[in-house]
Amino acid sequence: MKKLTKLLSIATLAVSPLMFSATAVAEYPERPVKFIVPWPPGDLEDIITRMIAEEMTDVTGTPASVINKPGGGGIVGALDVSQARPDGQTVGSFVADILTTHIHSGNAPYSADTFEPVGIFLDYPFVLATKADAPYNNLQELADYSQKNDVSLGHFGYQALPTAITFKAAEMEGIKIASDSAFDVNNCATLATGDADIINTTTQLILSCLKSGEVKLLTSITRDRLSIAPEIPTLAEQTGITQTTWNGLFVKKGTSDEVKAKLAEIAQAALKSDKVQDLSATTGAGIYWIEGDAAKEVVANDFESSKQLLEFMNK
């Protein structure tokens, strides 16, 4: 009898880790989940992340919320996630710069392997835009025009990835930029007032003047052509530069595969909603889903290419 009791105890000990693991996964999330958006509210990543949080609340019955933590070009919010437990209770909604250029520049108090991707879900609809009556309609025509005329560029700052991509494209295509300025907001007014001849911005910021016909696009810095301007070739088509400015969900390294899978399942369901599809249709945002090893590969490739872009900007 004692031998049987002992055997049963050993068997219980043998399976208990599996039981506890299954229970932990089944109970995720065990408490309210925080999605950290390291920017002020209102932009695309914030809106979509809120939809993902709403989906998690609806599916699991556990509250999930978005906390905006702007500062340091996204570093303040990323630091919050880097200091969290690897349990999926704190999830970062990160733009590419946080995992690439900030690390290369030495601005980040974390390393390239601090986080693991749950999935990449958004291409910001970055574009090069100009006034509708400008005498050029694509990058080659802009290059020809710039040989005899001064061209000024408006951008979001030298540390911003789209800015580096724009300057690299200009060099490749022979576009002479006579002057450039960084603006907090690059919108219709930047062009209308003559502060810049071309601007590197997002379609969200210039939708009104695109619809009115006051502004036109020269190219989009996106994986695919914009849904709102399918006739405009991407930067990759015109120059071969494939890097874009994406956003994805990231967790602390060491988070279990089961938790990441649950997060991915919820995020994908949210991305299929009518609200998200309408947002994509009206802004041109590229909304898709890349997870697992494919997402890691995107991050790794962009980590290397962004290093080259920074070296180009600093030479």
UniProtKB/TrEMBL annotation:
Keyword tags: Receptor, Signal
Alphabetical list of InterPro entries matching this protein: BUG, Bug_dom1
TM helices/strands, residue ranges: none
Signal peptide location: 1-26
Tree of life domain: Bacteria
Family recorded in the similarity comment: Belongs to the UPF0065 (bug) family.
Listed name of the protein: Tripartite-type tricarboxylate transporter, receptor component TctC
The species this protein was found in: Marinobacterium stanieri
